[in-house]
């Protein structure tokens, strides 16, 4: 019997990320800076229990991206990804 998931998939971040990116980030492909896995952002494990959004690698659970909305400021930390490739 498997444990219940305590995360959502990266698609859930689409609304929050659309305040920063005009393109759909969930379809973008990114590389985890920790394990090198290359996956679509929609496959990331998304945790919403923290203040803001935390996306973790589906392979190694390393933090890929953090997004915190604090009053009039949006903080984006994407150093957990080597790159994020957006299709034009
Ligand atoms: Zn990884």
Topology:
Layout: E1 8-9, H1 14-17, E2 29-32, E3 38-40, E4 45-47, E5 53-56, E6 63-70, E7 73-77, E8 81-85
Antiparallel strand pairs: 1-4, 2-3, 2-8, 4-5, 5-6, 6-7
Q: Which residue ranges are poorly predicted, with pLDDT under 50 across at least 5 consecutive positions?
A: none
- Give the overall shape, derived from the CA principal axes: globular
Report on the biggest sheet: 5 strands, antiparallel
Radius of gyration: 13 Å
Supply the helix-strand structural class. mainly beta
* Strand percentage: 35-45%
Q: Percent of residues in helical segments?
A: under 10%
Overall pLDDT confidence:
90
Query: What is the spatial order of strands in the main beta sheet?
Result: 1-4-5-6-7
């Amino acid at each position: 019997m498997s444990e219940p998931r305590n995360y959502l998939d990266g698609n859930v971040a689409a609304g929050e990320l659309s305040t920063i990116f005009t393109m759909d980030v969930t379809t973008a492909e990114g590389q985890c800076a920790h394990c090198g896995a290359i996956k679509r952002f929609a496959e990331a494990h998304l945790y919403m229990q923290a203040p803001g959004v935390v996306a973790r690698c589906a392979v190694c659970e390393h933090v890929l991206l953090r997004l915190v909305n604090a009053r009039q400021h949006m903080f984006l930390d994407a150093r957990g990804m080597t790159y994020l490739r957006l299709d034009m």
